[in-house]
Structures are given as structure tokens and as C-alpha cells.
Amino acid sequence: xxxxxxxxxxxxxxxxxxxxxxxxxxxxxxxxxxxxxxxxxxxxxxxxxxxxxxxxxxxxxxxxxxxxxxxxxxxxxxxxxxxxxxxxxxxxxxxxxxxxxxxxxxxxxxxxxxxxxxxxxxxxxxxxxxxxxxxxxxxxxxxxxxxxxxxxxxxxxxxxxxxxxxxxxxxxxxxxxxxxxxxxxxxxxxxxxxxxxxxxxxxxxxxxxxxxxxxxxxxxxxxxxxxxxxxxxxxxxxxxxxxxxxxxxxxxxxxxxxxxxxxxxxxxxxxxxxxxxxxxxxxxxxxxxxxxxxxxxxxxxxxxxxxxxxxxxxxxxxxxxxxxxxxxxxxxxxxxxxxxxxxxxxxxxxxxxxxxxxxxxxxxxxxxxxxxxxxxxxxxxxxxxxxxxxx
Length: 391
Known about the structure:
This protein is of the alpha+beta class. 29% of the residues lie in helices and 24% in strands. It has 13 helices and 19 strands. It has helices spanning 43-48, 51-54, 84-89, 95-109, 113-118, 124-130, 135-150, 159-171, 183-188, 280-283, 308-319, 353-356, 374-389; strands spanning 10-11, 23-26, 29-32, 38-39, 56-58, 62-67, 70-75, 174-177, 197-198, 203-207, 210-213, 218-220, 224-227, 244-254, 264-267, 274-279, 293-299, 330-342, 362-365. The strands form 6 sheets. A 7-stranded mixed sheet has the order 7-6-15-16-17-14-18, sandwiched between helices. The protein has a 3-stranded antiparallel sheet with strand order 4-8-5. A 3-stranded antiparallel sheet has the order 10-11-12, with no helix packed on it.
């Protein structure tokens, strides 16, 4: 909007930009508010972000699989040829499953994002079954992998999201900025002055062209853009119900990393509490002070049944089978994020003007209008801005 010559003023309810994409500095560590990654194939991210300035650090293609037998590893032979034998020998699924994985990747490489979102929707679980994948690879790989993205265990999320995400993972890197995911919104906001970006100013209500905030201030504008999560939309536009996904992420420090590769470890046990582990200091050394490792542990919704004071003990009790030294990990901080993603059972990749324009002068954007992703958040913002500029 500013680059198009419009005067702008952004009212931010918190003490920093980014919304759900924030990074905290804590005792020399960089803690993202929930484990997050940037899929560098996202078309909107490629358009708006300067990847070089973000100093992106990439995860290695593949995953560590934690199971009752021990620890296995799979790779992406199309991007890392040396992982071929290791992947073929992995017990996560049959040889047919692994060939189906390869065929799926090649199929998705040959279709566009628009074609993916034009397909008829089903659940991810039904999609995988219809594609011929066995129960074994669904439970050992797809369930823990996609649950970390979907934030739900049943794989009810739209098959469109599955194809889109799988395509994005396959076509480019999975990365984090060297100094935390918060560098993404910081880069986007870098062209705004202190008068244009006002922090700690929560909007309570909108009346015509006037905005009222919690501090008692009134602001007037020719057009207003609501850019919040669905559960923070101000009056009178608040929806009666908001379907959302929550997540709990716990950070630990250790003198010794549980593993030394830039891979995400997936817990394939069906009764798991821990869904995945990432040693972020293996990916970017800036995430931890010298001599320390930063470990992110993301939990399934099973944690809701556990008393908070018992949670750390339960996590370590589960992980010590694979990583005995976890009993010595030091708890840093726990992030309980009530609204981490919108409901993604039914999704799209385009928005009607009627969905964005909620009154004569007020517009709305957000990934809840499309699908839960950084790409969708950026795209909805772009489309809303274009709609305002077209008036």
C-alpha cells in the first residue's frame, strides 16, 4: 500500500510485528513462538521476501523416524542421491510404498498450484488410502509428518493442503532465517516509520471509517484493513464461532545435541505425546549460545490430558528410549498457542471480493480466508491491498 503511494497506519495489538510469526530472545537462545519453518517454494514468499537478506538456513531433505524398534532415517533420493539405499532399507513402509512416494512427488511436480486447489476435496487420510499407501507408512511417516503441519492427528485436513504442502516440500528448501522466524515480519515491516506502525494498540471496534482501540484512542481512515487471526476480528465483524487448531511447543537446552543432522525427528508411535523434535541449533548456530543446543519439542493434543507440572517428566520419559541423555535437558520455555492454525478441512487458494470486503470501507485478510500457511497469509494480504487500490 505504501509503495503504491497510499498513506498507511498499522495498529498492532502486541509489542512487535509478526502475529503468530515471532521470535523471542531468551538467555542467549532464539525461541520461535512455536516450531515453524519457511517453505522456500511458496510463490508469495518468493515474491515479497529477500531470501538472501534473511540468511536462510536449510534443513536437510528427509526425516528421522522414531519407532518402537529404535531410530531410522529416510531421505529424498531426488535431492540427495546418497540417501537412496538408506531410504529403500528403511522399515517405515513397503518397497511399493516408497515407489508410490516417488510417483506422488513426480505427479505433483507436473501440476500447478491452481490445479491442486481446483480438485475435489477429501480428507488427507482418504487421499492416502486411495493412492494405495499402506497402513504402515501412513502411521510411521505420513501421520507424524503431516500432524506436525496440520496440528491434528486424524489427518482430516483437506487433501488440497496435502498436495500443496507436499509439492512445496519437494520443490525447494525447508528453511529458517539464521536469526529466527521473526526476521520475516521484521523484513516486511522495515519500510515503516514509528508513526506508521504503532504497537500495543489493540483495536476493539470499527464503526464506519472510525476505529476505537483499547487505549481509548479513535482513528479515522478512508479504508480499513483487518489483518488478524479469525479469533481476534474486532466488533461488529467477529464471527460467532471460530474453528482453530492449537499447539504446545516446549524448548529445552542441552550440552549435547540428541543428534547432529539438520533433520526433524518424527515420533511414529500411535500413543505418542511428542509429535516431533527439531534441534534448531543444528540448522542455525545462532539459535543457541556457544556450547549449547536448542531442542524444540512439539506435542500432540494428548498433552491436554496431562497436568502442566507433570508434562516435562512425561516428555522425557517418552524420549529417553531413543535419547537417554534427555533426562539432563534443561527446560527453557513452554509456548501454549491456542490459535496456531485455522481449520483446514475445506480450503481454497483464491478469495472473492465479497469475502474480503466486509463493509463499504472495511476489508479483511488472513490465512483463515484461504488455507493455513505463510503463503496464504501473504496472498490474502496482497489481494486485499489490490482490492483497496482498485477502488
